[in-house]
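This section describes the prediction task in plain terms. A model, or a person checking by hand, is given the sequence of a single protein chain and must write out its three-dimensional structure as a string of tokens. No templates, partner chains or ligands are provided. The sample shown here is typical of the held-out split.
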Amino acid sequence: MATRKGSKKSTPSTKKVLGKSPIKSSPSKKNSQKTAKKKSVKKVDDEVVKKGKRQAKRKKGFVPMKGGASMEVPSKVRKQSSYNIVSSAISKWCKENGARCTKKQISEIYQGLKERRLTGDPKYQLTAEDIASGIKGNLVVDEGTDREKKVDLLAFKDAVGVPTQFLDFEWYFAPSFFNNDGLFFKQDDVLRFDLSSIGRGVIEIYYSEFNERYRDDIYEWITEEVEGFESESGKGYYGRFKLNQDATDIENRIFEWTFEGQDEGQVPTQEGREKVTGVKDKSLPTEAEAKAQKEEDKAREKQESAPPKKLSKKELEIKKIEAETENLKEQNRVKELMLKEKESDREDVKMGLMTSAEFRKKWKGK
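The expected answer:
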């Protein structure tokens, strides 16, 4: 078949000789014994590390530098969590107080501190390191007038009675006292504040909501009343909260305080309170009663400041009997408190919170 001029065949033609396959040239014996040419080896600089050479293990804490030198760097240390820092301090505190706390007890104490100092009101928040220091009693915090006071964050944990700082305190220092309660209060404790003396009634809140509720419902109300009274009367106003022992039930975790206020140097009266607040408070004395009480107080102070008269033998005996009676009453009161505490410890033994050995050690000879 004819092909177009100038075109190339896709495959080369193979010549055939007498119908046989084309003859292949066989390599000569001489050529088969030829050795392969040597490959040229590229010169390697001194700085290039030869392949296959095992590198030395890097020393921990060292970084290799050029020229074979090395520089030491600080090892990367994993930061401890807040829980590990605080729980470690709690565990040590337990041992120092003669008891090994369980993981559950440590967790409960941690949660109490966390709700107060880690995630609570930003004003009272602390770092985990500060909390650990506070567990040891070495933390210095702002306590109102006393700015150099060392605080023990677990000072009143499981206390039987109400701590002294909560018996009588100024209304404007309350937030500082309640946030630094030494772990006395529990989150579901009921706190009642009786503001009847300034026409507000009783406000009941839970400890868990203290910061917000006290600021919005109590602090602001008292501030407005005090400022209003002082602007109208031109006198200073002095107010405090006092624990109402009769209305307080520690066993059921209910605490109540009564607000007592008066302008400096004068006793609040029904007429004076009504003039300032518009509410007549019958629990206060009238002006006539307040005046009579003032005269009586003056007379008593004068009598007490006078030199004591010589008592007869009979009067001395009566005084002695009265003193002994009061002493016996106080002893009985102390015994009752100890019995209550002992019963509470017995319940702890039953619940596994205290061992029998610890109970016997605490109450041995009592």
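For orientation: The two ends are 132 Å apart (CA to CA).
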